[in-house]
Write a structure and sequence with these properties.
This protein has 507 residues and is of the alpha/beta class. The protein is built from 18 helices and 19 strands. β9 and β10 form a beta hairpin. The longest helix has 18 residues. The relative contact order is 0.09.
Length: 507
Amino acid sequence: MTKIWKKLVVIWLIAVIVLPLMTGMQVWAKTEPKQLDILFTHDTHSHLNSFTTIVNGEKKEAGGFAKLKTLIDEHKKVNSDTLVLDGGDFSMGTLVQTVYDTEAAELRMLGQIGCDVTTLGNHEFDYQSKGLADMLNAAKNSGDTVPSLVLCNVDWDAMEEAGLSEGQKQIQSAFEKYQVKDYVVVQKGNIKIAVLGVFGKDALVCAPTCELVWKDSVKAAKQTVEKIKKKEKVDMIACVSHSGTWDEADKSEDEILAKEVPDIDLIISGHTHSQLDKPIQHGNTYIVSCGEYGKSLGTIGDFGCLSFHETKNLSMGEGGALFFQNNAYQEKAEILREKGTDRSKFFRGQIDKYTWQDYGSSYLPSDLNAAYLWAQLEMADDIQNDRMATWNFYNEALKPLADKELIEQPFIPKDCIHNAHMYYIKLPNLESRSDFIHYLRQHGVMSVFHYIPLHSAPAGKKYGRFFGEDRYTTKESERLVRLPMYYQLSQADKEYVVKTIFDYFNR
């Protein structure tokens, strides 16, 4: 392969769509410099529709594959030879995957927007081996244009030597039908690009239903790159990786990959939902990430839920609410609420009789419950501000105990907000927490622990399993205790709670 020197000449944010990063890679061969534009996505998680998110404190409509395609098409008017890549986890995250799980909606939509190559993420395994196989088969059987799929570190030799399980056989057959490869070579104008795919170690930890056996991603990538260099005449090598970047250098898998396999020119880094305003560079290898769902801040997706349980910020004792952004779901939601009937349309005079239409249950609150909730909704801001004030008081007043490492306070990640649903502290262990709760109860302060881990509950033992090492789940649940938190908790009561906590540690 002709030796190539690279220089990243353009990389900028496109803030309004799912694909917020564009790279302009300039490559030099022995003759003249070449320019390649690369658009990419990763971790879109079935967010095919646009959604509402918060940008600089304001609600904004963001994302959606329609907007994404518009941008790609507009860019291809300027440069028709643009390469479009995806870093995996294109499925699971909205009801699209739930409702259309057998129709491969996400893969087919990636094809519709012009994605050239993708790879698998951990969430592609959420419906187990059969679910993944069905998705790949459905995508291929659809007749639609779908992206190439690359994975270089699946260890089929090890699985065949051990004897393929039924699930492994299903995926192997689907891989053959879809034509999954270690790498593909894509021609864009006068530039040839080899694209390989890797599946990371942490991604595997996050895929408890995955039956496949994997090679070490770095070793497999190194072998694949050597194969590319021997067999192909390409101008650059890109990798769609579902491994991610981390703050800890020894854990940052895509950075390790860049250091160990320097012939990779560009790594599209999925899995960790990282958003890099500028690429990470190791040697001549650039690592880029564009966040999640096609936006830089959090979202509730296509549907959202609220609980109105008695402990929640807004309450009517029990029940909850379903939110949706597409009015097309309104009728279905009403039917669900009305025991599966279209009675709401009847009451509005839209139909002359009502009958059963779909799944449903009796989700209608009583008049008294609804009135109780409505009064709170009318003063939701006051309630929220009051709870935030209580949360902030606890957090500031108890800081001296945290500084002495007697307790651990809540951690709020940078650029995140919370709704003051609860204020908790962590004690050193289960014994100290039990003693702490008992002491507070003796002095008139009701504090409670949170739920026990699901894997240790009867239903969890019966229907689920714990995957991996239980390093934090049980330990942290045994340490956590919730302090009194409700609307109009008086200042005197808050001060008494804090005083009692200090008295406990000063015994």
